[in-house]
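Re: [help] complex structure
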Amino acid sequence: MSADTPLPIDVRTEMRSAAAWLADGGSAPSGRAVTSDLTIDEALLLHSIGWEPVELVFGVSVTSVPVGVWTWGRGEISTASDAHNLAVHTAAERLGRECAKAGGHGVVGVQVSVEVTPHHVDVHLVGTAVRPVDGKKPGQTFVSDLSARDFVLLSNAGWSPLGLSFGASFIYAPRRDAATAIRQSSQNIELTNLTEALYSARESAMERMQASGLAMAAQGVVGVRITEGPMRFARHVIGFTVWGTAVRLVADNHVYLKPDMVLPLDDAVVQFEAQSLRGR
Amino acid sequence: MSSPTDLPKDAESRLAELGHGFFTSDLSVNEFLLVKETGFHPLGFVMGSSIYHTGIQGRRWSKSQELSKLTEAMYNARELAMTRMEEEADELGADGIVGVRLDVNYYEWGSDAAEFIALGTAVKAEDGKSYRNKHGKPFTSDLSGQDFWTIMQTGYVPQGLVMGTCVYHIAHRGLGQTLGSVGQNIELPNFTQALYEARELAMTRMQDEGNALGATGIVGVRLEEKSHQWGSHTIEFLSIGTAVTKTTGDVTLPRPTVIISLDN
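Output below.
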């Protein structure tokens, strides 16, 4: 998929060989069975760009957070932010290593699960390692939470995923003093202390995500998702985490896909909900 | 917080990085490709938020009325979030913001405090033409990447996300009325009327915003009814949609290919 190898892959032949391969029981050339959480459609799509699934791979990391950091303090809780950062990076690195060991060149469809508890940050990443059928190395190993379908679409448009870009920040929001709280109780007013804390948490997290993207020499981050709000166990700490897949244009130019308009004649599936009878 | 000069320290370096061709976006891959297909390039994931304390307003048990103080709060807080988001996009030199989402989150900070948040992806036209609206600001639109592609094919250009809101208290029925309607099929005129009026107010306000932008129409209008945390008889009616104007003459749209999928 790199710029100098625009291989004219015959989609029909690839699909046929993929179907034959699947009908054959899907045994890998090396003799090892292939595990993957891809659907048949996705496996076929991967074959359409000359890639195949290799193995289901995992990356897990649990990082401890020092006791008491959530309760008192001012400004950013950098130990928590660092712990989050470390856990994510270690997990992603392990995922990449496991992928390389399985002979893959990238991981797609990574399910990201991050849990922040008072004493530790747990990160679980699960995805399917993939590789080009012809055994060529397309550059560095990548990790991406894009589905196989999205990976194929991006490849067709000339883009390649590089890795997961993450950022997190936890900020201690100052409390209002009692007099202010009482004075404001009947007013329409913005709570600037909380708004500002949220803003700085967000800026730090976004900045870290961008920095990690730039470190991978990415041109952008797509599919960015965020979680934000006070921590469940510490109401006055505002957490902001953000992640997405860093991507880079590997073809000379963006390839326009020129979609056709289609109109499916399938009836919309109407699901009957018993609750609707009760006026809900 | 309202001017970029008092954005936090990290914001400046972040926006500077985005100025050099690196982008972030909450668009899915489908939407990203479609936005590119339309001739736009994403610039950055932009967001505005405000944590807002809504005041208290007395309401009469048996009177249907608009609660103007609460309406004002809902307007003001959303406006703050939207304006901040637009400022970020403006800072990036964007032509518009697509896929805007407006959310209200309630946390445990107290019953009357809510977070109003506006999120979207700032985009810029690749052909160098300006698609800003008549106020010289980037357009905003809650259309998804798919809808954005489709509407641009028709020659319409989004101008802005417009909304109207009305917080309304719907009167309870008196004992006499309740007893009078037991066992009967009957319309409850006071409820019907109150709901009508509140909806009309919200819709009218949205249309006024559309007119102010010189729009020829509003697409994708949604009408949401939320009780937030005010109990069952106080309801916020929110109507929201994207104001659009026609910029080109007649467009011949390709006839869509009719398909029937063999799934399920």
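Chain B touches chain A through 63 residues (CB under 8 Å).
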